[in-house]
Amino acid sequence: MLPAAHHLFSIPLALTISILLTLSGCSSSTEPSPGNPDVVNRFEGSIDTGTSSFILRSIEGPASDGSQILIDLIARNLITDFQNQRVLLEVAIKNSSRRPFYAPAKVKISDFEPADVQILNADGTDCPDTTTGPSTQNSCEFIFDYSNQFGEDGLLAPNEVSGFRQWVFAVPELVAFSFGVTAQGADEPEESHIAGLFFFDDNENGSHDAGELPVTIGHVMVTGPGIDEPNQMVVGIGEDGRYAFPITQPGLYTLTGFPPPTGSALPTRFTTPNPLEVVITTDVDGNPVSFTNADFGLARFGGWDNLIVTISSPDSIISHDGFVSLRVEARNEGANYLIWGHGSSSCQLGAIVEYNGLQYSVSEFRVCTEDLAEQGLAPGESRVETWLWDGQILSPNGPSRLPAGRYRLFGNAGSWLSRDCVVIEVIVP
Description:
The chain is mostly beta strands. The protein folds into 3 domains: about 10-185; about 195-300, Immunoglobulin-like, CATH 2.60.40; about 305-425, Immunoglobulin-like (Sandwich), CATH 2.60.40.3880. About 0% of the residues lie in helices and about 45% in strands. β4 (about 70-80) and β5 (about 85-95) form a beta hairpin. The chain is globular and about 65 Å long. The model is unreliable at about 1-55, about 130-135 and about 260-265 (pLDDT under 50).
């Protein structure tokens, strides 16, 4: 987690996006659906025809000294993906106040109507404790962290606009939908820190791109000035793949990333420098300047482009006490033998389900051999496995059934995930 800022404020925002279902391509407007005349009345914004951007709505909140913080959420490039029933929107934060607006800055989206609309690419989620009662997708907050969009100085000056981030909504039947938004930020500089992200670098370009998943297990060892004896610290990675630690002095810091165990005989390969050296300078007041891009990219084992994993299912709904059939296939289209792990010789493939922004293995109804075999494929070889799934996932507390909702499932061979997915709806009576 990031170090706490001196003062945080949260500002609620009600927002409606509507979709014109008669469009035949990409949409750059927010016209209401027929039969929903009240949608436009709840949408507040302005369109800039010169830049194809528009303000979703102005929101205000008190700063620590009693003055007002005015933040605009500016959106552009609204795209309606009819084939996949998705809506894509690029959103940035504009500081319309007369005072600076500091990181950490987060935007939280929740309270969807209808409840089966979801965010697919949030940095994290915050959901109620399911041990105290049932939870639904509608009760979760989807979180986008805009801190890295504020530039190297970690602030938005008056009238400055952050970088844009794309929000991807899954919208069943592409109906009109609404949701609530809360913008959270700081009115004073936060404690100086170094922060970064562990992620799977699928295209191995050394930077985190949209759609690349976080690595959620591992740690970072740090050496540098001001760190207690034995002159090093160990920092864990959070559930969103992010880590952070405070700094009190400028100078050279050396960060070494340690990935999670893979169960594979092959070594883990980083696509970014490891160890990573970070030089911290000072601002005009002599305070260390934070650095928030100390990222570690990990390559998938072996040749990602040559191992093709696919998933399919003839079913799309799991009713109470029901099942769906899952089929996962892996093909090695390369010239080298590929190994993704060691384990059961009969159950080498699996499926991953997305729930609340995290990934869980599905709980399977199949019998697997208890041997320890090399799991992989020779050049030109393929493997197919099928089994039944009843809507349960393997959580840290054991198998648990998903609440009602629509979920994306990906096939996997070790850490390789299929690029396609199937959408399964779980119905709970």
